[in-house]
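SUBJECT: A protein chain and its fold
Encoding: whole-number codes for local backbone shapes
RECORD BEGINS BELOW THIS LINE
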Amino acid sequence: MMKQIQEQTALNPLHSHWRLADDRNVLYLSPTGETDAEKTVELSPEQAGRIREITAITSSLLITLLIEKQVTAVHLVGRKINNREWAGSLATWPDTPAVAPTQAQELSFAEQIVSEASSVIAILDSRGKICRFNRLCEEYTGLKERDVIGQSVFKLFMSRREAVASRHYIENFFRNGNAYEIERWIKTRKGQRLFLFRNKFVHNGSGKNEIFLICAGTDITEERRTQERLRILANTDTVTGLPNRNAIHEFINHAIASAGESQVGIVYLDLDNFKKINDAYGHMFGDQLLQAVSLALLSCLEEDQLLARLGGDEFIVLAAHTSQAALEAVASRILTRLRQPFRIGLIEVYTGCAIGISLAPRHGQDSESLIRTADTAMYNAKEGGRGQFCVFSPEMNQRVFDYHWLDTNLRKALENDQLLIHYQPKITWRGEVRSLEALVRWQSPERGLIPPLEFISYAEESGLIVPLGRWVILDVVRQIAKWRDKGINLRVAVNFSARQLADQTLFTALKQALYDLNFEYCPIDVELTESCLIENDTLALSVIQQFSQLGAQIHLDDFGTGYSSLSQLARFPIDAVKLDQAFVRDIHKQPLSQSLVRAIVAVAQALNLQVIAEGVENAKEDAFLTKNGVNERQGFLFAKPMPAVSFERWYKRYQTKKMR
């Protein structure tokens, strides 16, 4: 009979849930867990006390109750649901006493996992009331679970604005049942901490079968701080502290995207002589100079303009909601400031710049195109001379195309023997031909004969001038050897650039070629521009001395048009100065040019230097130069530059004519 009563009671769905208040020792039983109870069971003070010892952690308890006048072993599972109530479910199966310990052990294990988890875990009902609050939650907040059960999570941990957003998320969660993740700053005992919450469904283990929101959060504050530090490092130039290439691309694209009808512009600048300064004084000095330049540039900007270092000696100024006039004003201020010297320690250096300007949307729709057009404008400014700025125009793209065509095809020209040497004779005041000047030409299968003015500057920029110069000097030596074998003994002048002087292998190659071709003397004259002497005077002096000792003569080309001083004529072992065509042209009509040439000749004679004039095109020019002490002349009046075979024929005719 006892067994039947127990089974009937246990299986009766009307009595599957219980509830206990803190003010009466009465257990309320109901089939649904609602507040209206169908039955009540009196508890002893001891029994009520045992139940009230249950915390917010779901627990189990085995007690004996008098239900429907029958003594029944009941297994209670439940927890404290708020500050004044406990609730849960009950089981009255015949084997309850036997299985209860196992269930209690399993429940305790599950609860321990929740309580001791390495994540903060809070369980909320549909109204945002706290149902569970694990140990890690307590450690972070300093609040105990028993004190927060039943309280609103919005009021405890969120601002009003955060609460509105969270209510929206939670309402959607209970409406749609979609799990979601969210990052949220939480005020803790350690200050504001950022948590990543992963939110999912959980079914209530006590009371009616409701769906709750389980919020499992991981403290990602340090992870985010590390990510932010890495982001800053990835977007910051380590030398100057300015935004770097990666950052400025993002800033430009963002500015363009949010520009609306206004213009976004950049000022792209490239420092002059930075590499030479870096090589001369070291990288540490170079870094200090970059820092000083950065501060100088910042002083030239408006408040809403941004400075970034693109890399090397290149900087970019970004201006949103701007105009061409505003960018030109910035460029002018920068040029003015960089004309002043920078003092690093005891050393004072000058570093000007060339500037290119471009604006979106006219010159580019994104950072790549805008920087590219500004770079093109900057190179155009460089070609116009130092200390200038230039605003991009579509015509400048032709220069970029030409540069890439020349860079690609000049390499092929070196590999495929498309280069050739033309020779122009120099005539002494007695009318003799003793020397020539070697001038390189490029016979392109695509464009025909290309003069040096159209490709030498590109060779300088790309570094191709080094292999090109080596090819020229070796080809010239071989040609001189052929003429020697034919009884034609002439010297040939070859042009050198500053970059070629830095190529230490050039001298070695020439010396070896002279040995291989059985020369007992050096028939090569080296023509240097005045800029070669000032860009690295120590290196220039060393190389010039090497060539002089080998037997080469040193000619200073374009004399009077560059940066030379009389002290350089005395310091360097120079054998001749070469008057630029600017002095020679129409000299018989130009009193000022006549005075300058007389003065130059007088100085050269005093220093025992030869004087050579180039660009002589008519007899009147030649007559004045010869009369006033110029030693050699060259120009179209006598002969145009010509291939070696053509020169031989010209030379024979000239010699025959001279002998008559």
